[in-house]
Amino acid sequence: MNWRRFCCFCICKEKDLIRENKSRDYPWELYTLKEILHATNNFHNDTKIGEGGFGSVYRGRTSKGVEIAVKRLKALSPKAEMEFAVEVEILGRVRHKNLLGLRGFYASGNERLIVYDYMPNHSLVTHLHGQLAADCLLDWPRRMSIAIGSAEGLAYLHHEANPHIIHRDIKASNVLLDANFQAKVADFGFAKLIPDGVTHMTTRVKGTLGYLAPEYAMWGKVSESCDVYSFGILLLEIISAKKPLEKLPGGVKRDIVQWVTPYVRKGAFDRIADPRLKGKFDRAQLKSAVMLALKCTDSNPENRPTMLEVVEWLKGGVERRRKEVTNLQHMLEEDGNNETDADFQGLRMPQSDSRRERAVKN
């Protein structure tokens, strides 16, 4: 099926889904271009709230008083239209409290518009590194709530959606926050549907440097564990407010795992936490979360937990994890500065029985 037929297929299917869901809990809208232009003041620059390679995102208000966000494709290329079709197709399949809700879309002529719920607290990256970072609105409980919500959204994609879905672009700018700072995983333009019984696929690399699992970045092997790796990076970012990659003097780049590992070896977990928290965090919870992040970013995908295990770990309580974290810290201290893969054996979780057994090449 060529890309044009695929896009038409997705759009037609989406219209069917909208009609089918009109009477359900998640009513969808079939917007006209006139309605969207009115809501965004003709895409006025003052309403622009974001911009990326795909195009721009605008804030708007419908005639019914509903606040919306509108993603507008910059140019109608085969690549852009494919991403539009994929996102519409994916969002037509999923509904979860931690996934950004789709209100509807418009596709006609040269316009491709996707309408979402507006998120008043913007993206996670805005609070960690952007214009709201200085306000430090994310205290420790909020950060852990955001981590759990993001993990639950991913666990839904990996284990409940049918077929399973790999996001492929988990990062701080793709985690949006509603009025109550509840996390909403967004942007499904790079997502992959995984047929039942498949463990991984080989495909063109998409995503963002600093978050990419090594086997995906180097060989294009994408699996659910690639999202787990990205989540591990995101979790360290939430805890520390450090960027996934930072430039050191001389042009050398250091990733967040390289930065955090020496502190873990020394047991200096307090040094990992965002200084803006001013020490106001649960120290046992901090250790547990850092250890989980290191498990998620294991270089061997077979040793990473599933997202269901990640959710269980994050929600399972600090006391159950305290002994394992203490033992792990002791092991790292004994190992000193030797940073071989063997040092991280204690970070590995048992492989889930739910891992599937066949692979295909796409």
From TrEMBL:
Alphabetical list of CDD domains matching this protein: STKc_IRAK
Residues reported to bind ATP: 71
Pfam families reported for this sequence: Pkinase
Keyword terms of this UniProt record: ATP-binding, Kinase, Nucleotide-binding, Serine/threonine-protein kinase, Transferase
Phosphoprotein is among the record's keywords: no
Residue ranges annotated for the Protein kinase domain, each copy included: 43-314
Bias (Basic and acidic residues) ranges: 353-362
SUPFAM superfamilies, A to Z: Protein kinase-like (PK-like) (SSF56112)
Region annotation Disordered: where it falls in the sequence: 332-362
Annotated InterPro entries: CR_Ser/Thr_kinase, Kinase-like_dom_sf, Prot_kinase_dom, Protein_kinase_ATP_BS, Ser/Thr_kinase_AS
Family recorded in the similarity comment: Belongs to the protein kinase superfamily.
Protein name: Protein kinase domain-containing protein
